[in-house]
Amino acid sequence: MNTLGEKFSFTSFGESHGKAIGGVLDGVPAGVRIDMDRIREALDKRAGRVAPSLEDGCAYSLELKGKGISPRALREGDEVEWLSGVMDGVTLGTPIAFIIRNKDARPEDYEWLKYSYRIGHADRTYQEKYGIRDHRGGGRASARETASRVVAGTVAQQLLAEKGIEIRAKLMQVGEEKNPERFDEYIAAIQRDGDSIGGIVECVITGLPVGVGEPIFDKLQSHLAFAMMSINGCKGFEYGSGFEGVGLKGSEMYLSENHTLISGGIAGGISDGTPVVFRCVFKPTASNRKTLETMFQGSKVSEFQSFKAGRHDACIAVRAVAVVEAMAALVVRNLM
Amino acid sequence: MNTLGEKFSFTSFGESHGKAIGGVLDGVPAGVRIDMDRIREALDKRAGRVAPSLEDGCAYSLELKGKGISPRALREGDEVEWLSGVMDGVTLGTPIAFIIRNKDARPEDYEWLKYSYRIGHADRTYQEKYGIRDHRGGGRASARETASRVVAGTVAQQLLAEKGIEIRAKLMQVGEEKNPERFDEYIAAIQRDGDSIGGIVECVITGLPVGVGEPIFDKLQSHLAFAMMSINGCKGFEYGSGFEGVGLKGSEMYLSENHTLISGGIAGGISDGTPVVFRCVFKPTASNRKTLETMFQGSKVSEFQSFKAGRHDACIAVRAVAVVEAMAALVVRNLM
Amino acid sequence: MNTLGEKFSFTSFGESHGKAIGGVLDGVPAGVRIDMDRIREALDKRAGRVAPSLEDGCAYSLELKGKGISPRALREGDEVEWLSGVMDGVTLGTPIAFIIRNKDARPEDYEWLKYSYRIGHADRTYQEKYGIRDHRGGGRASARETASRVVAGTVAQQLLAEKGIEIRAKLMQVGEEKNPERFDEYIAAIQRDGDSIGGIVECVITGLPVGVGEPIFDKLQSHLAFAMMSINGCKGFEYGSGFEGVGLKGSEMYLSENHTLISGGIAGGISDGTPVVFRCVFKPTASNRKTLETMFQGSKVSEFQSFKAGRHDACIAVRAVAVVEAMAALVVRNLM
Amino acid sequence: MNTLGEKFSFTSFGESHGKAIGGVLDGVPAGVRIDMDRIREALDKRAGRVAPSLEDGCAYSLELKGKGISPRALREGDEVEWLSGVMDGVTLGTPIAFIIRNKDARPEDYEWLKYSYRIGHADRTYQEKYGIRDHRGGGRASARETASRVVAGTVAQQLLAEKGIEIRAKLMQVGEEKNPERFDEYIAAIQRDGDSIGGIVECVITGLPVGVGEPIFDKLQSHLAFAMMSINGCKGFEYGSGFEGVGLKGSEMYLSENHTLISGGIAGGISDGTPVVFRCVFKPTASNRKTLETMFQGSKVSEFQSFKAGRHDACIAVRAVAVVEAMAALVVRNLM
Q1: Which residues of C touch B (CB under 8 A)?
Q2: What is the ipTM of this complex?
């Protein structure tokens, strides 16, 4: 249930405000020196400590820090402790277990959540499914869990890079804004207003050989969609012509000069050797100052003053960029 | 690779123009009388032999037959032979194997495909992945395989219906046309023109209790997306507010009176007790009279007169409605 | 539940007296010409239509036919019909589905079983687990199901043979008799007496490279044991020094000149490049003339005249030889 | 590869002399208070810190401590740190991650192993499979890994006990000695002699309802055999009449008054409601003073003075008792 992949499998564990989050990565070949810098960078990107760089086609500046991203994310170092599978920095071929201890655990901040369900969160469904939940910051449902995915996915990216396969995601749209040069100011305004906004992340996989993915069920797009839809806040997945392609006629689509844009690099569930292109849409986070309604566990509705100012992400799609890359890498490595 | 689901699993086999297509359905409880009429209806809907009914909100008339749907589909009866797992019409709790023999197999129609790759089809990726392929009508990649899915999925639907869970899909958009009353004429025009067009199918699952789906990877939306993206021609999946929701602000989204439309009936990967709503987009089929280009296996490009008139679907989304329902049923039953 | 293996997977279906038994074999590479003769031979060996040959080290003669083996097995041809995955005798890389129709289905012979549980059979556990069962000849629990395994396993053996890996099993012990030259007469005497007897089958895998099997859970011996214990009537599995080695001291074991006999060709769960040797013990079949007691479904004990003379196997271990080889091949191919 | 079970799954990680060993247990229901004392007891039993009690039918006294069991095992406390899935001692329904830090890690003791393969160990197969290995004390192949299995298995045992299912294993035979009252002195003599000896562990599962296990491949005995064969040093598995039953005739077996002893509590792969009885044989450990030969990595044979006196187990079957119980519990819980 908490494991993704069969041959290259990642098991995730940990609650947002428990002792630690972490994971077990199984199927990494022996003899690989792990690039710890690359992992740190990816974690910083996920945490909003660095902005996606300009060369990624994402223009918003480092000023963004402290504007659209929660202080907790900025403060935490996300130090990875490697427990097994690595000796002197080199993989052993055995399962790699790692943990990131939760430093900023302030459970008292979440005391009120014991008796309340936040709208747009998984509080109620968890409580009804399990009859118990770790109410502190969403517990297992918190997006903090994605830090473990980023560690594992970055190891996968490193393995793929050795074969010439690169995975690059970028923020493509924020709200209705499609011009990257205006993302920074757009998000800052939303942030000032105590509100939140959705976004679209596009991901391109280059260097993938022909033949990745299986016909029928285990299609490449099926596995990518599965992984992306599992990211917190993701409401949709499309590849190639996607939803906008509904209006295309066959005569236009297949005679098009820009066939790859339309096919998305996949035919019959199998990579066709051209770049694979897909997009995910992320909803605005529910943890914003304007979301005031909630329900007590006894089903009665109440109002409350949700969070200290700024303690929320104005646009979770910004930080999702690193997670999309990580998940894509886990999927592709598992299918190869 | 050709199996979907763990506890309730469906294994699919068969080439489009081989002896038979079929499947093995494992995990069906013992003692259930299989509703053969329901299966026949679903197969007819998939084959385009009957139009989705008006009560489904799909307005296009039976006139559609012979217009937007290929003659082969209309001619074939899709007779299901039950090989195991059923005694006197009642399930035994053992694996249910069934086959549908291929009647309209005219391999000679496809002789030219031995040496050609059709654009927009999986011909080339199959050939490069396997070094061999059944070229007859796409072989394993043909949408004919979805008939097996419909048989299995309809058994799943029957099991779900016993628990009050109903799955209904409908055609929501054809090209740019969103008014169901104009679908018929729209598709007929495309058909007359020898062209093809995309469409969007919406599916609603009602009666689902709280708690279906697992946090983290095995989210309900992840499994639904996986299954839908595996349907031939599907280019995107979304639930709740989906891609259009990118422009919504958090303050609008969570204060909305129509919360279910936005949440899509899922929170944190787990069904929340309200109807689950998702949509899939289907591209226009590549098998239309206007798609004239192809490539010889030696990579040279050539022109050919593709199909006899009418032997193609003007809008595969029409027939996908039955497949979407079937796949959703397989997913939901497996997760329960 | 009815599937074995992940990368090379075999799904089995069918009841003993239903329409057909069969299977789906997934993961066979494309472009392999299937050796139909080899499959026929293996099926004949399993059915007791031919005795294991002298070169196998099994001395009992063809006279055995009609003595220790049930008439039904002798009469049936076990004709395999290939439904998919094969074109012109060559594999396509797609799932291979095959069936063997049940010819000698005489359900009326089993009418009395509707109301009785046979001792030593799965009649009662099936009835209590499922609340229904196909009572005809054991239904799904019948050893007839192993014919499907033999078809699939022989395809696997063929694939392994291409890499120089050979799997040979032989009857090693019948009752207390360990001299193959006396097996024939021993079994004939048991048969005349209307009784049944146990046996031990030994299997040797040669040509296996170093490295097959995974540390910890997915050890080579774990997978072999899993597969062998799933064969009808198998009560035990051992490799290398096995149970008799309990009395060995470490000083004797590891200084032994015959280290392979003791290690069984596996170290730490991984093949070590020497022949892999394992053994399985099979109990006497419960379907013998001397087993007269049974229980009515209401739990009352009664006597009945069980079977027509000869309609039982005196020593199921004889026919198990082909099944052991098949299962070993499925396991090894899946792990490679 | 390092995961056992699907619905109730256990993932193991950690090298013998790395930072920590540990595991992730997924599928534990929410709201269960974990019995930490029970886990400590089981770990002590596995480590040889307490002898199996007299009521277990195992007569060897506490004097055994320091005789047949390695000092490292006695010294280590095996302190379990719970990282996730548990809040205030109660399970959350989320994955439970735990670690046991390696305290007695003295890698310098194993420096010589960098260049040598020990006979009877997995040193060579690991090296050839992975091209690298953690040579320190066997690394991943060390029996220390079974401590993680005992933690996970004891949680499973607790869950089973709530349903009235008890799993009890005991030492049944040491070398040729079958009288428990003489085990103590027998093992002590072997230990004094610097040698090692094999043993047989018997396990009985009581309270199991009818219906656990699946027909065909996923038989109860298949899963038990798989799990037992994965325990270090296990060379064979049998249930019910086992290997000794080879000489039984059908007429004796099924008329026997002690039917359960013969059936082992399983019919057709499914538990029949009577106690399930199985046995495993363990070889003598290769790490004894008399095992002097090894091979340098360059394949040349050499002699070396293996271990400091006493730093080995005279009979690993003693400590395997706790592991057999743990593995049986993991298997049964997963199948229910």
Answers
A1: 1-3, 9, 11-15, 18-22, 24, 26-27, 29-31, 81-85, 87, 90, 92-97, 99, 129-134, 139-140
A2: 0.89
